[in-house]
Structure formats: C-alpha cells, structure tokens
Amino acid sequence: MKPAQITQPIVAPTSWDDLPYGDNYRRALEASLQPWWPKLFGFHLLKIGALSAELDTESCAVSHQVNVGVEGGTLHVVADPYQLPFANKSTDACLLAHTLSYTSDPHRLLREVDRVLIDDGWLIITTFNPVSLLGLGKICPILQSRQPYRSRMYTQMRLMDWLSVLNFEVLHRSRFQVLPWRRRGGRLLSEHLPAIGCLSVIVARKRTFPLTLNPLKSKSLAASLRRTVGAASRSS
Length: 236
Hints:
It contains seven helices and seven strands; from the N terminus they run αβαβββαβααβαβα. It is an alpha/beta fold.
C-alpha cells in the first residue's frame, strides 16, 4: 500500500475563495451536511482548518464551536492540528473539511482527532474525490501546481480503511458536485452519476468496543465459560 505520509509541505488555502469555484464547493458541502447537524449532540465541536471554519454550522445542536488551525481569518485558536491543545476525550465532534487534503501526514492527524474525541464522538470528513473531473486534472503536469489539483485526493475506501483501524463506524458516505463550475454541480449528473462527484463526505462515530469480534478470542471466551459452568455444576 502506498504510504500516506509525504515529506514535502503542502500549502493549504486560508479560504474557500482561494480555490477556483470554491464558493460552489462550500455551498454544496453545506447543503450535504445540513441534515446531519441537528443529529449531533454534546458540548464542544472542533472545526479543524481554515476551510472547516468557514462552513456554516449554525444548525448544529452543539452550541460551543471552536475554529482551530494554523492560519485563517475566522480562527478562535491558532494551533498545530497535529498537536491540538485540548485534553483527551474532551470533544464531542470534529469537522475536517478538506483538512486531510492539505496535510502531509493524515494518519497522525486522525490519531490526534481520535485522542480528543469522546467515546461515541462524531467525525465528519470532506475531501476531493480522485475519481472525478478534478482527479483527471490532477494527472495533467500543467495543472499539478495549481489549486485544487495540488491537494491530496483519497478514495472513500482508503479513508474507510484508516477509520476502521481507529475503530470508527462509518454511518454515511456520499459523493456529489460532478461539475465544479456549476452552483449545484449538475443536478441530473449528481443524481445519476454520484460516483464521479468532485466532493466526498464521510460521517463516522468513534466506538469504544471493536466493531467486529476476533474469532479466536470469541472461541477462547466461549470455552472458558463452558469450563466454568461445568465446574460449578459438578460442585453442586
């Protein structure tokens, strides 16, 4: 498997306005996430990165919302996302709006988010979809140095693999905005060809117990219980 960590730094945009058609991406993401915000409950929501900070989350049931990042005009806390200045299990929800697309070590960032999230906490991830018109532009040498083609693009399956290692349960995933230059991304195309949408969204929750039991451990536990029950019945 290709390693996720890279050595060269990535310059992240400080606003959606820094991206071509950035306002279209922002509006599409806000519309896609709108049904989920009322479902989130708790005390603290972390919006990590300048792009996360600019998304409208007023309908979120979590009232205390903190914008965290290195650079941006709407930040509340200026901090390195790799070293969040928050205690373990102190946050109810985290929003990573294209934050992974502009980080050199996504595994480290996800581990840090996992550290600050409470059990059953919410994690929302948005990224660019490599299987899209943007993905085609990324393979063009002329465009590779421009935004948003200079960002890192991950398939949903790869992101889900990373989340499963950290014991997150994916509740929802979608792709949309097939045409970047259209405000609604081409409604018919987005409805019938969502797999090639430029934007990808994953909603997940941190689980305390493994999502799948280890078969060997399950058999060992069952055998131990049978021995215990048998010994108790003989002694009685």
